[in-house]
């Protein structure tokens, strides 16, 4: 294993400590990246089990397995855990592993804070999960926790939910400050901003988004806390507040949040597609500008989640057009990837399969988003399974596929071993079929009017729900295969070369595989101006 | 762009912490901003507080009738009976009108209530001038007590022509607990 390779370091380059304390006290970006990734995977499985409870109940109409109260707790916890526990920490884990290696930095700029920002998360999520065993049950008001459901009508456990969200917020804020400081200050000499790999660019912008909106999320849960315990009335109409205000503040956070979950994915796919198409990325600059425009626009479209609350017509029109505008930079990206593949000599190793599926399926999600942005149409689609289909298309074969693509792509660099390609492809095809069988039919039942967040439904929706549940179990169980593949790859396998993939670009491929515990203690010489 | 020293990093970090704090404050600033925005645009159907008739009065538009409908709702488990004296009135813009709303408390204890008004269509809200309204204060009723609550209003003559019917709805909230905890402090 890797220990052999690490032994021939200079003596000031000590390797990792031994035992459990290595992981508790570590300030090494690679260790912390690994911790984040495993944590995220554990949460992915936890949230996944909850999704399977939901889909098992919805397999048939009527109430079979769980009581409606518990069903509501499952939808809420599933959403919260997937967003804050699975997708976000996975991207932070990737940033930890990759950003220093990609910019030629020895580590993250603030290693001690890096350790804290990870170790807050297990506490936050233990607290959140412990609410399942509390009197009155776990939060049951949906991951969007609209007031007054989450204030006046909330179970007592809501206070723990609020503190858990505070902790997650602090963790992501510390994580993103670290990313920004690292990228701005620790780039290898001569690397200009416009020389940075796109994953670094997208993470820089994501980190700014996080820094801007996580405090607003902290604010909104603080207001809830005050309404619940200190007699204020931010969101209580009876006391002069306004529940619609909650939705505005929440979505001011919430819409940028959905881009926080997709921008790093854009970076990953922009790294993988050129490698396996054996061509340069079609347009680097346009990718950077498109990312920045998406980030900017994400602040001014939030009310497209609230078309039905009763807004003045001018507001509806403004938010409709502003939302549609986002499709432009998003389209720039999709065409960019397509043009990169065009006439490339493509091969379809597992990372590429996930990346290509990302481009296709994310685009389907973007198109349903565009349909939802049409105000009069949204009056019909809002709070139906069509919305569920939309955001699962952008998040599962979007964000999650990109994370899997990244895992396969950089796993040989991390472990020094190639993963099992046959198993990887099997995992891809099972996931690909599973995800589409699960979520495509939800477009149909949504258009036919099935509302989201109910444990029961009318008979006419029965067939597609059954299909959807079958797909969910295929998708869910195939993730155990992913776990197996990763463990197998860590344990051994064909040795990876330093470059791993022919013609892959970036500093991370210039160092040994597996990546030594300390890299770039002296800044690297940049090969040539290749990125621009 | 070389690997910079500790000071530069500390400065970047502090700047970012500043942004974080600023955005936390901004989150709270959204509350008054939202109220101002709603007042200015009438979004949300919120009506303004007590209206003072200008010194030189308001010209009555005697060419035009506007129908004003009254709606009452009880929030959540509010047990009071609450209804308007009349369901609708035809009024002349500019004229002072008066009506009452009836409320009674069937609960076995004294309760405090707050009525929250809302006007539809929203853009008509700013033309609904209330000179006197029970919604400007809280109502306290003992067990079995009933009350007729006054409302006096003027419809602004500048009400857009397109609005011929205007709905004023009240939702009655039970705020007994809120006032009790406020009193306890
Ligand atoms: C072209 C780009 C997109 C457009 C035009 C768009 C538009 C919309 C609209 C209008 C809604 C509200 C639907 C409703 O509740 O009635 C919505 C919901 C949602 N979108 Fe998108 N979207 C886009 C991309 C994305 C991306 C990239 C993500 C995340 C990665 C995302 C995640 C979500 C989520 C999570 C919801 C549902 C939130 C909830 O109510 O629980 N969207 N989208
Ligand atoms: Cu949105």
Q: Give the overall shape of chain B, derived from the CA principal axes.
A: flat
Strand proportion of chain A, as a percent range, falls in under 5%
Task: Work out the strand percent of chain B.
Answer: 35-45%
Residue stretches of chain A low in confidence (pLDDT < 50, at least 5 long) are: 1-12
Could you please describe the fold and organization of this structure?
The complex is a heterodimer of chains A (532) and B (185). Chain A has 532 residues and is an all-alpha fold. Chain A has a single domain (2-12, 20-523), classed as Cytochrome C Oxidase, Chain A, CATH 1.20.210.10. Chain A contains 16 helices and no strands. In chain A, α3 runs parallel beside α5, α7 (198-229) packs parallel to α10 and α10 (284-297) runs antiparallel to α11 (313-341). Chain A is globular and about 65 Å long. Chain A starts with a helix and ends in a 41-residue tail after the last helix. Chain B is α+β, with helices and mostly antiparallel strands and 185 residues long. Chain B folds into 2 domains: 10-41; 47-184, Ctag/Cox11 (Ctag/Cox11 (Pfam 04442)), CATH 2.60.370. In chain B, 24% of the residues lie in helices and 35% in strands. Chain B has 2 helices and 9 strands, in the order αβββββββββα. Chain B has helices spanning 6-41, 176-184, and strands spanning 66-74, 81-84, 88-91, 96-104, 111-120, 128-133, 139-141, 146-155, 165-174. In chain B, the strands form 2 sheets. In chain B, strands 3-1-9-5-7 form a 5-stranded mixed sheet, with helices on one face. Chain B has a 4-stranded antiparallel sheet with strand order 2-4-8-6, with no helix packed on it. The radius of gyration of chain B is 24 Å and the shape is flat. The model of chain B has no long low-confidence stretch (mean pLDDT 86). Classes of the chains: A mainly alpha (532), B alpha+beta (185). Residues 255, 258, 304-305 of chain A line the site of copper (II) ion (CU).
């Amino acid at each position: 294993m890797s220990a052999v390779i690490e032994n021939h370091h200079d003596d000031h380059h000590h390797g990792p400590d031994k035992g459990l304390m290595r992981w508790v006290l570590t300030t090494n970006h690679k260790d912390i990246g690994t911790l984040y990734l495993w944590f995220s995977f554990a949460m992915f499985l936890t949230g996944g089990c909850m999704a399977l409870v939901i889909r098992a109940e919805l397999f048939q109409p009527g109430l079979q397995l769980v009581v409606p109260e518990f069903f509501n707790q499952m939808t809420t916890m599933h959403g919260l855990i997937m967003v804050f526990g699975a997708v976000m920490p996975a991207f932070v884990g990737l940033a930890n592993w990759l950003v220093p290696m990609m910019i030629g930095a020895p580590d993250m700029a603030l290693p001690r804070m890096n350790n804290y920002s990870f170790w807050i998360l297990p506490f936050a999520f233990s607290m959140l999960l412990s609410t399942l065993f509390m009197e009155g049950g776990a939060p049951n008001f949906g991951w969007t926790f609209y007031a007054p459901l989450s204030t006046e009508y909330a179970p007592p456990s809501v206070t723990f939910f609020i503190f858990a969200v505070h902790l997650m917020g602090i963790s992501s804020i510390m994580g993103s400050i670290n990313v920004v400081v690292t990228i701005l200050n620790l780039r290898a000499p001569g690397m200009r901003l416009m020389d940075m790999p796109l994953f670094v660019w997208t993470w820089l912008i994501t980190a700014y988004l996080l820094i801007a909106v996580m405090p607003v999320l902290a604010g909104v849960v603080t207001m809830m806390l005050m309404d619940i315990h200190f007699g204020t009335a931010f969101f209580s109409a009876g006391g002069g507040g306004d529940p619609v205000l909650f939705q505005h503040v929440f979505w001011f956070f919430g819409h940028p949040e959905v881009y926080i979950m997709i921008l790093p994915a854009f970076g990953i796919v922009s790294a993988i597609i050129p490698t396996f198409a054996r061509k340069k990325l079609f347009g680097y600059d346009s990718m950077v500008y498109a990312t920045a425009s998406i980030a900017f626009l994400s602040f001014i479209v939030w009310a497209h989640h609230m078309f039905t609350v009763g807004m003045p017509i001018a507001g509806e029109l403004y938010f409709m057009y502003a939302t549609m505008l986002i499709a432009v930079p998003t389209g720039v990206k999709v065409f960019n990837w397509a043009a990169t593949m065009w006439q490339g000599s493509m091969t379809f190793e597992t990372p590429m399969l996930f990346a290509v599926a990302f481009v296709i399926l994310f685009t389907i999600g973007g198109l349903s988003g565009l349909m939802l942005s049409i105000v009069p149409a949204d009056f019909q689609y809002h709070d139906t399974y069509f919305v569920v289909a939309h955001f699962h298309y952008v998040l599962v074969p979007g964000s999650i596929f990109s994370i899997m693509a990244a895992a396969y792509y950089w796993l040989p660099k991390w472990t020094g071993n190639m993963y099992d390609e046959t198993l990887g492809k099997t995992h891809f095809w099972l996931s690909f079929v599973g995800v589409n069988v699960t979520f495509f039919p939800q477009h149909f039942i949504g258009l036919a009017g099935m509302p989201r967040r109910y444990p029961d439904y009318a008979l006419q929706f029965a067939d597609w729900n059954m299909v959807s549940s079958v797909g969910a179990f295929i998708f869910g169980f195939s993730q155990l295969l992913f776990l197996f593949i990763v463990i197998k790859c860590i344990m051994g396998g064909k040795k990876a070369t330093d470059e791993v993939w022919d013609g892959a670009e970036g500093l991370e491929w210039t160092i040994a595989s597996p990546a030594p515990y300390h890299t770039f203690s002296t800044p690297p010489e940049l090969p040539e101006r290749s990125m621009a | 762009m070389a690997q910079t020293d500790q000071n530069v990093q500390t400065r970047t970090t502090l700047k970012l912490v500043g942004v974080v704090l600023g955005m936390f404050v901004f989150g709270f600033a959204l509350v008054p901003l939202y109220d101002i925005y709603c007042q200015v645009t009438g979004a949300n159907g919120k009506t303004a507080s007590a209206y003072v008739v200008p010194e030189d009065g308001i010209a009555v538009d005697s060419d035009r009738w506007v129908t004003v409908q009254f709606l009452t709702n009880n929030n959540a488990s509010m047990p009071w009976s609450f209804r308007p004296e009349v369901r609708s009135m035809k009024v002349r813009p500019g004229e002072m009108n008066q009506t009452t709303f009836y409320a009674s408390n069937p609960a076995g204890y004294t309760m405090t209530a707050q009525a929250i008004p809302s006007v539809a269509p929203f853009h008509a809200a700013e033309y609904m001038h209330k000179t006197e309204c029970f919604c400007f204060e809280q109502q306290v009723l003992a067990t079995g007590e009933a009350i007729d609550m006054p409302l006096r209003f003027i419809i602004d003559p500048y009400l857009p022509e397109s609005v011929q019917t205007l709905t004023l709805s009240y939702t009655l909230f039970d705020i007994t607990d809120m006032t009790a905890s406020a009193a306890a402090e």
